[in-house]
Amino acid sequence: MKKTILVTGGAGFIGNCFCKLILKERPDWKVVNVDCLTYAANPSTIREEMKDPRYVFYREDIRRREGIFEIFKKERPDVVVNFAAESHVDRSIEDPGLFLQTNILGTQVVMDACRAFGVERFHQVGTDEVYGDLPLDRPDLFFHEDTPIRTSSPYSTSKAAADLLALAYHRTYGLPVTVSRCSNNYGPYQFPEKLIPLMIHNATHDKELPVYGKGLNVRDWLYVEDHCRGILAVLEKGKVGEVYNLGGHNEKSNIEIVKIILSELGKPESLIRFVADRKGHDQRYAIDPSKATAELGWAPTTMFCDGIKLTIAWYKENGWWLDECTSGDYLKYYDKMYGNR
Ligand code: NAD
Ligand code: TDX
Questions:
Q1: 7-16 pLDDT, tens digit each
Q2: In angstroms, what is the span from residue 195 Cα to ligand 2's centroid?
Q3: Which CATH number fits domain 3-187+223-247+283-302: 3.40.605.10, 2.160.10.10, 3.40.50.720, 3.30.300.130?
Q4: Which atom of ligand 1 is nearest the CA belonging to 15?
Q5: Burial level of 294, CB count in 10 A (0-12/13-18/19+)?
Q6: Which of 8, 26, 28, 231 lies 20 to 30 Å from 98, alpha-carbon distance?
Q7: pTM (predicted TM-score)
Q8: CA-wise closest residue to 201 among 235, 209, 46
């Protein structure tokens, strides 16, 4: 069936993967990508999609009500998926204000446009970080959809506020909202400020690998395409007003991840440098995805041992993409974050 799907943040890591998936697997759908291209978006990421007649790109900021309403008026989307966000925890610790503006007020603008023009679905892309963290010594505990919201960083707090606002728009105005909360993603096109691409980039250039604290914090890693298939499953089979956790029971400590990357690249562990810990650093994330599996028939398909090889191979073959990301302001960012750590 013909549909127009409007994706915000579609030039970023996960949003672009989602656009690629829709163009490939839903041949009747038109994809409208609205992204203001912050530092986190390398325009080369969307180069291939731009050639597709079913893909339209608008450079617009979700905080700019007038611009967003204009796009809705022109495109009349059936479905809206909100990926656009400031997404890096360390940056939120340095400058919380922008996170509150984009992640909360930007989401409000997009939902107001949905109400004004009418949509079949507004989907909010959320994170497991809204549940806070779990202790390292309780491997029996997991995040469920009804785990209390208990955020640690300005980033996770802004994402929690956006989730709650979306659910409030459902209850108050009847907006057909769904929310997904996913664990840490990895894969091609991730900006090299996040753990996995940063470590691949540094190891490739024989630079030190800065591991926070003792490297014992645990994250639950999911291949980015599995996340995108989960979002599509929520759109097509999920119940309005519901939250779905997406994750693949793939917990690894940061030091394990770093050692896997070094070994895959044939680089020595002497490159590891333990640095000052992140403020308020969450100990462990671990998703229980059983609701998504039972209700949507969704389960991840890429095993970590395969996904990490695919990912490393992609960054090796596409060094030019990383080089584009790490030129210009990246060096200033890197010095500020890691210079005196
Ligand atoms: P990203 O930082 O790679 O991409 C974000 C995109 O949003 C960029 O293209 C950026 O230009 C755009 N953007 C930012 N502010 C904007 C604004 N005001 N107007 C329009 N566009 C704007 O992020 P990502 O890792 O792809 O994350 C996408 C979404 O998924 C986010 O909402 C994030 O909170 C969520 N999420 C991410 C992960 C993860 O592991 N990366 C896990 C769970 C949830
Ligand atoms: O240089 C580093 N050294 C290090 O030890 C960096 C950048 C990170 N780390 C640690 C901190 C975390 O324990 O690695 C872990 C992963 O860090 P990030 O890649 O920054 O991810 P995280 O903070 O877990 O948040 C991510 O997952 C949930 C995404 O950035 C969020 O957007 C998503 O919502």
A1: 999 999 999 9
A2: 5
A3: 3.40.50.720
A4: 26
A5: exposed
A6: 231
A7: 0.98
A8: 209
